[in-house]
Write a structure and sequence with these properties.
The protein is α/β, with parallel strands linked by helices. The protein has helices at 9-13, 18-32, 73-84, 99-110, 132-137, 153-162, 177-193, 207-217, 247-253, 259-262, 265-268, 271-281, 370-384, 391-410, 416-420; strands spanning 64-69, 89-96, 126-128, 143-146, 166-169, 197-199, 224-233, 287-293, 308-314, 320-327, 334-341, 345-348, 353-356, 360-362, 414-415. It has 15 helices and 15 strands. α3 links the parallel β1 (64-69) and β2 (89-96).
Length: 450
Amino acid sequence: MTDQTTPSTAVETSRPSQESSRRQFLQASMSSAVSTAVIGTTAIGTSAITLPRSVHAANGDDTLRVGLIGCGGRGTGAARQALMADPRVKLVAMADVFDEPLQISLKSLLAVPELADKIDVPPERQFDGFDAYQSLLATDVDVVLLTTPPHFRPLHLKAAIDAGKHVFAEKPVAVDAPGVKSVLETCAAAKRKNLSVVSGLCIRYDAGFRETVKRLHDGAIGDIHTLIANDYRGSIWVKPRKEHWTDMHWQMHNWYYFTWLSGDFNVEQHVHYLDVAAWVMNGYPTKAIGMGGRQVRTEPMYGNIYDHHSVTYEYENGTRLFSNCRQQKGCKNDMSAYAIGSKGRATVSEKKLDITTDTTWQFDGPVKNMYQVEHDELFAGIRTGNPINNGQYMAHSTLLAIMGRMASYTGQEITWEQAMNSSENLTPPAYQWGSAPEVVIARPGITRFV
């Protein structure tokens, strides 16, 4: 792998002189604006996406430069959405631990006619290796998209905010409690610096979900006493091991199946509907107990994550959240959340949004793609000097999912305080090719809470 500890000098010398004035403008506009951290369901409207060109005419160029860190399918999608979010945005740098997905991603983006003119990523701004993110952040990008495996999110987020970049951070944002704490600290720093941190918990950016949850917050079904969050789905990809791969190559290529990289799928995938439940309740539970295991995905190629989890969370007021997720081929799928209250019930899912009391309300309004909306609002906030900061809920919902994993893995009741203060740190001794963390499968009743 290429050593990218320091950025290419070509990156620094090839910029036209107008770049310094452009950066001065962007920094000045950010520092002079009133910081508005947007938490929860409130966000900048997409109608504010552009300002009159005369505002920036003296600077010659107000293009927002974007860097992509993590060039898999989700990263490629995020780059496309970022480029569609604003008329004056350009993708100028890309980084991935492997060069191959970077090249595939770049080629696929260039093949989209409406994006080709917004892409300028020459070889000197293509970085690979574990330290590729450092090389990218040393360039003059304004916005970075963090879409690597979740383990790296706390590290990359801190580096990006320290470097003064606006951030889109895919979900989840950590795989252990130290990572969650790091993210909370970094997002507080971002708020002080007037920098954006927009979360990939995209459901919060869906118009239908926003309207439904607002009605629930307004008391549409009375006092909520029961929530259900389901994520039943089939199997996903797996990449057979190649002869020349080291253990670290194998685990990195199959990151989804290793707890240290993905957090387990209860964290990596189910975080979406756990976050919906927390959003509906406008808060987080105090304890959890659950079970899980490997019933179908038992072969070594599936690493050490479970293929099913069932967790019961309890709130301080006695409300219970029943969380169930499963990844098993040939079974019925269901990805949804439900809320039951003293006056009625609600279905909160991508297929159906309704509230039933003595009458039934169903959302049928216009909806824009939520993956696009989160980027539209990110760039609108940057343009208006009102950056969005989703730090609190993206970190706490990640911990909610980790808490459930802890309960499943240990077979013990885990409190919120225990989860937050856990000393379990899944970081490997070193990020290098060769050996990788030992593959240990958790055994409830034997695996200890740390």
